Sequence to fold (1183 residues):
Amino acid sequence: MGATAAVEMIDTREGADITLECRFSPQIASQDPTLFWQRTSTKDGKQQMENVFVQDRSLVPNYRLDYRPHMGRYDLLISNVTYDRDNGEFVCKVLATGLGQVLHSQTMQVTVLIPPGQPIISPASPTATEGKQMDLICSTTGGSPDPMIHWFKNDLSYSLESIPSLGRSRTAPTSGNHSFIPQKKDDGAVFRCVVSSRAMPEGEQYEANVTLSVNYFPRVSVSAGKENILRVERDSPAVLKCNVDAKPAVSNVRWTRGGRFVATSFTHTIPKVGLSDSGSYVCIADNGLGRPGEAELTLDVLYPPLVAVEARREAEEGESIRVHCNVSANPAPLSVEWIRPDLPEFRQSGSILSLHRITADSAGTYMCRAVNLVNSNGKSYERHGNATLVLRVRHKPGAAKITPEKPIATEGNSIILTCEANPSGWPAPQFRWWKDNSEAAIATGARFAINSAHLNTEGTYHCQANNEMGHGTSASVQLQVHQAPRFIAKVPSQKTKRSGDKDFEISCDAQGKPKPSVRWLKDGDEILPGLMYDIITDESENTVGVGTVKSVLSFTGKSRNGHSEIVPSDRGQYTCIFYNSVKQTESTMQLRVEHQPLKMHQYDKVAHDLGENAKVTCIVKAFPRPDFEWSNKNGKRLPTAIGQHYEVNDTILSEDMFKSVLVINNINEDDYSEYTCTARNAMGYLDTHIRLQRKGPPEKPNSLIAVASTANSVTLQWEPGFNGGQSDTKYFVSYRKVGAPDQISECDNYAARSDPKEGREFDCQKNSTCNVTSLDPHYTYIFKAKAINFKGSSDFSEEVSATTQLDGFPVPQRVTYDPSTGQVAVNLASSCLQLLAHVETRDEHGEWSTFKKVSVGGMSILEFRVPTPSPSPATTTITEAISPASLESETYVRVRLCLQSSGENVCGSFVKAEIGPMYINSAAAFVTPTMVATVVSIVVFVLLVAVIIIAKKCKRTQKKVKKDHELENSSSRPSIVTQQPPPPYYPSGMENKALEHSLDLGLDDPAKTVYGTTPQNGYVYHNAPNGHMSGGVNMPYIDNSYSNSNNGGSVNSQDSLWQAKNGGGEIQQSQSRQYTHYDGHSYGGMDDYGHYPPVQDDYLNQRNNYMATDAYGNVLKPKKRVDHLDSPYHDVSGLPDPYGEHHQVEGDENKTQHLGLSFDESLESGYSTPNSRSRRVIREIIV
Fold:
């Protein structure tokens, strides 16, 4: 019997041709066996087996046979494979004829590969219930062979368990069922079905996913911390919050307490909790899934200590008592104690008050006070509770005391005298009152009230306390009765006088106690006797202290015509005021003065252009009311009427101020003339001439004064001149620094130098009061003002000088004192101020007195001797080595610095001397010479090494490019340096406010230019090109400057003042460009390096050799050095010099200059930042 091979799997696709090989041993053919092929396929869900070939006879179409049994070959050839026909199992059998014995058998499974269809998940929108089984079924149809189906959840890489169901036909679906018990965490989970088959291209698979919605039971929590305990202070609102996580969501909850229903809201609020609200609260939520959720919350009501003690107790002297204090609190009290409010030193800890052998002094109020710490809403609060016990000790009253001790009553008013005894006595005492030497009682009780005091109420009042235990000591006070001033004679309510009347006076009389004083006021301002008035006062006093005062105000004085004539300015309200400690009273008179009209308008001119309506205003002061009349320059009265060429409007401004306005409609050339305003009343007349002219430039301001100053500003005020008819007239203040007061002459501090003659400007807009800012502290400036409008500018006003205030004051850096020798050393900071050292010593009584005053301007150290103090009897013998620690509390010397010109009015604070010789040695021997020498040596060495390295590099570079330079055409144009210069840096403040185009004027039109670029009256006005700051504030970026000031120091500091000559390392460089007009070649700000150590003298001398001697000319460039190339960019060649009148640079300026100097190559240019970092040179080109 032949062997049967395993089933052979053969995959094919529809339309293909395949060969099923059936091979056996050729010897079998000699037995004349029966050969046949069988096919088993599935149709309509049923398996059918049929013969395909028997021997070489075909039983079904589309099959062929390779029939060569003698060779052991019986192959089945299938052409144009189809799924319905050929998908199935094929069996090749060789049977022995007649016996049925299987001599050979081969089974082949032919699979016609057909990709499966897209997977379908059922249900498509799955909704599950927590705890109940859920089946997710993924099915696919049409595949051959049956595909593999896997389930995945979310992003998990491993597959879930599933039960497969094979279709076994392309018409039957294949499915995978994932069955599970859903949990809350599965809500929203994404389940993914993956279908794969070998009929699909390698790596390809189909996917489908669904999102699971899980309805879960309520999860309930309460917002009350870890222990679910809500602690709320009594009488505060308690908010019980119930948080429910459920699906479906619940619309309400049930709050219960002790099984009883409380509320249905998620947030249950108890507006004002009490102790009865304490307990357990349960929140229950049910969403209909059959399992309600709940959480328990404990409400703990916190309350401050509730203290209870007996209200009062009575005891006998010598007795001992114990009182218990009952305290209830949540949380428990931290402390319980007994105190006496009237006796701060009395204190007993604990709840028991124990008093032994009490005396009368033991009587009083005792308070039991408890404290606990309440933690409410995350914060801790200390709460107090108390209760009082009144202890009464039976004893007689002590000494009486009357308050107030010095009673003063006002006539007609009430006063209360209060009597008390100390000790008060128990039982409660009675009080008896009597007056002067009479023993008759005038009142009883602790309070004695006088309802209406009068002068005979004055006297001595006595009070005494008594009870059944005895009498106390009496007390007495002296009662005084004061009287408010009362008029005996008042001034008349009104009076009318004529201008020129003589010998006029008014008087008023009053009396009061104490004797009143008198003041006279005119229109609310006090009248002082002298130039215009004289005041004569007559005073007297009677036996009871009532004073009578008569005061006469006489209109006499040397400033009056004829010494006593009434003038129009006397008009006003005069008030006579009498006052004393009780009150003040007054009498008022209105004085009217009849006088002829007086001119009150400011200007005798008005300005209007042709075609405008001119208003010529005339204002006069007169009484009685005047009549106005207008006439032309020929004295002819003008015809005025409404709607005509001339109109007149008269207005009453006040009782004695009147205005008349002449309106000239549509003025023409003939109207430009002088007009006369005549004002006439019974006292006379006034002719005022007013000129009508064309609009023009303004007149200069007058009466310029400085009204206030600070460390960096000065406030100016002036009277505006006529504005030329232009309402938009603005004002500018030109100012310049002229020096620093109190400065030593040797100090070469640039900040103290004067500004150039042109100065700087400040825009004051339309104001006649102007605060000029950004000034340096403690410097003198000269100011002058001018007016500008569209028509032009005025002349400058008169100049006025003002000095800014000091900002801070220097103090000694260190003061050291050696008690053994009396040697004192004072280390001083560098300063340009003329300072005075004020030295004080202390005597044996601890009093300070002046020892000496020494001028210290320009000094760095001051040394002197003071007398050594005698040791006090309690002081032990001082050895040679005095310990500073032992004398620390015995400061003997102190020093302060004062401004020499101010005496001791402007001074810094005192600095006390440090004790001990070692301070002096270290300060004097090391700090000054050693430190300076060390620093200078290091700086010199570093600079020397840097110069050598740069020189070597320059030589190598010159050799390398020598041939290239020889090939250059001498007439070729210079190549511009390719390195881009850094952007300009500007100061943060605006120095020249006038250059901001703040006037909206036609400045761009040369014909209309008011502020040109040419000097006007010695002052330069200009515009800043390319948006640069003006006024010479053309500063480079300084790499190591930490100052906010344009001058190297803070605007609010005295940095520039404290730099001594060469002491602060000031670079000796002209700073002339700081305050002059804009110059493209110049850069300010080099004074920013006053903070740095001094540079080498050689370097300074070399710089000084080529600096401009003209303090305000162009910045001169350095002479050419051997190891540096001349740069064509020191100047802007080919451009016109806008300041051609300045001095020209001497030397090599006109020579052909070499090319290629970079922006950071030269230190000698005067523009590089003087520090050890990479240097940046900033240049600007003005086009």
The domain at 120-215 is CATH 2.60.40.10 (Immunoglobulin-like). Confidence is low (pLDDT under 50) at residues 872-889, 918-928, 960-1183.
